[in-house]
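## retry 2 of 3
previous attempt timed out at serialization; input unchanged, resubmitting
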Amino acid sequence: MAIQEQQTDRGWHSAWPDAVAFVTVLALAWWLRASVTDLVWSLWLSSLVVGYAIILWTILRPALLFALMAWRDRATVEQALAADPRNALLVGGVGLALGLFLVAFFTVHFVGFHYVHAQFLSGFFAMDGSWGGFRAPSTRGWALFDEALRRYWVFLPASFLAERAAFMAPPAQGPVDVSVTASAIAARKAANAAKPVSAMVLPYQKVVRMHLLIFFFAFAHYAGLDNFAVYAVVYAVYFFPWRLVSRRSAAVQTTPA
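## retry succeeded, writing output
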């Protein structure tokens, strides 16, 4: 239990970038005099850009790692190509086709979902008026993407910082103890509970969280509660490192008495 508490404490110490991202977004919102419309669309843009980047990185990272290993061991690769070039090309072709299919599928699914969501949002939080000294053009259809990016790109670095774990390679795992002792079973449960969410699922979890926060923003706006203090609380929920809380809870639940 003491070791698990020490690991959790180290995890909390690593959460300082989340605090930096939170303070940065609040400072931007204050400096830009952001309205509830601005904050809603900044959340939408962050969900789209950061989520899609996570999906692309998850798909492309294995290919990049394989290419790096092949480059480091070029002699073995050349021998494999010389020994059976047809099979090597077949494996490479299948891998390339699978990667392109996944990119196309999630582009249509994830980006398409945000496109539909943008049309819905524009009916309640239209990006009208001026921003940064420029008058807003017609913001319908795909023009919403360009306008949201032009206005709210400044919020993206903080969002990438908050989701940095999704772009980092997972730590190397040692051999798993498959014995049926109570301690080994508890250790496997703790390891499974502590595993990060699949990178392909993570962007969709962020979409759900974005929806909840947007609904809260809408409620606060129509209830006349849209002030900076409310925005600060909502963004605190958004940037809070909930992953550390879930790890702590999993460690407590799986620790044998």
